[in-house]
Structure formats: C-alpha cells, structure tokens
Design brief:
Elements lengths: L1 H24 L7 E5 L3 E4 L8 H20 L4 E3 L16 H10 L4 E9 L4 E10 L4 E11 L3 H25 L4 H7 L1
Parallel strand pairs: 1-3, 1-4, 2-4
Antiparallel strand pairs: 4-5, 5-6
Length: 187
C-alpha cells in the first residue's frame, strides 16, 4: 500500500513536470515527428522458482515492437531507428549521452525507453518515458501496471502506453505555438 502511494505521487509529479515543459518543446500541429523505441529493461522480483528469462525476453521484445508499431500507425509519428538498436540497447546498457547523440544524428524527434518489472505471478509494472530529443527534455513519464504474465498482458500494456503517449504529445502539439518564431521565443 505504501509503495502504491509512492508510485502514484511520483507519477503525479512526473505528469505535472511534463505538462509544464511540453508546450515549448513539442512541434506545432501538422508536422509528423520521428520516434525511436529502444529496448526496455526487465527485472523480476516475483520469487518464482522456475527460470523464465527466455520467455520474458520474448515478451519484452513483443512489448517494444507493439509499442513501436502502434505509435507508427498514428498520423503523429513515423518510426525511426538509431544505430544501437541493432544491438538491443536499453537505457541501462548505454550511456544517456551516447543515446542522445545517436538519436540526434539519426534525426529522431522522440526517444521512447523504460523498463518492465514483474512483481508477482500476476502483477507486472514499469515505467515508460519519452524524451524530446532536440530539447533534451522528458515529455512523458508514466508508471504503468498490468495484470498477467503472458503475451496478451504485455501487448495490452504496450497498446495502452502507445495511446497515452499519442494523446499526451498530441495535446501538447495543440497547445504549442504554431509559428517557429514563437516557439523559439518560448524556449
């Protein structure tokens, strides 16, 4: 119960910070933005005796691919890759500065990353984060939770996250000044 309150407080704080920062960092409506979704980290503290690392690696890849595909199906985003994705980079396996540099060199507008944590046999959770690459600012930071430890649960969580990212970034674009000169002055 105490952990749930802490997570809710952290999520509320991240939401507040993202809503404050987003209007000046997100491009005007009408522009398609490129998004790269790198691998997600995984941890398991469920204490189950059976080693499920291989199954979870497949589910984590499914989560990433579903999230990327759903974002790419929107009019808001076009998917992109950065070089480290060929090696399965995550936020914990690569220096943040190197990720930012690769993303900028590839012309990526948004970088999506995070992690998934299996808490028990039936409960999973994690964090999904979106970085506005040109501004080097977080524009989305959500704590997610989901029930189940199967492909369907991971797909549902990824689709929910994609809808939430799209809704949040779209709302920020609506609020952003349309003229480039206005955006520069707001930075």
């Amino acid at each position: 119960m105490k952990q749930a309150k802490h997570i809710k407080a952290a999520a509320a704080s991240a939401l507040l910070m993202a809503s404050i920062m987003m209007p000046t960092s997100v491009s005007a409506a009408g522009e398609t933005q490129t998004v790269a979704v790198i691998g997600f980290d995984y941890s398991d503290s469920s204490g189950e005796p059976e080693d499920q690392a291989a199954e979870h690696a497949v589910r984590l890849a499914l989560f990433r691919k579903t999230l990327e595909a759903d974002l790419g199906r929107t009019a808001l985003f076009a998917t992109a890759t950065i070089p480290c994705m060929a090696d399965g980079c995550t936020i914990s396996t690569m220096r943040a500065d190197d990720l930012l540099q690769e993303s900028r060199a590839a012309g990526v507008d948004f970088l999506v990353f995070g992690g998934v944590h299996k808490m028990s046999t039936l409960v999973g959770g994690g964090r999904v984060v979106v970085l506005d690459v040109p501004e080097n600012r977080l524009v989305f930071d959500r704590v997610i939770s989901f029930r189940g430890d199967d492909d369907e649960a991971f797909v549902r969580a990824a689709r929910f996250s994609a809808r939430d990212i799209t809704r949040t970034v779209s709302a920020a674009r609506q609020a952003a000044p349309a003229h480039p000169e206005q955006r520069r002055r707001n930075r």
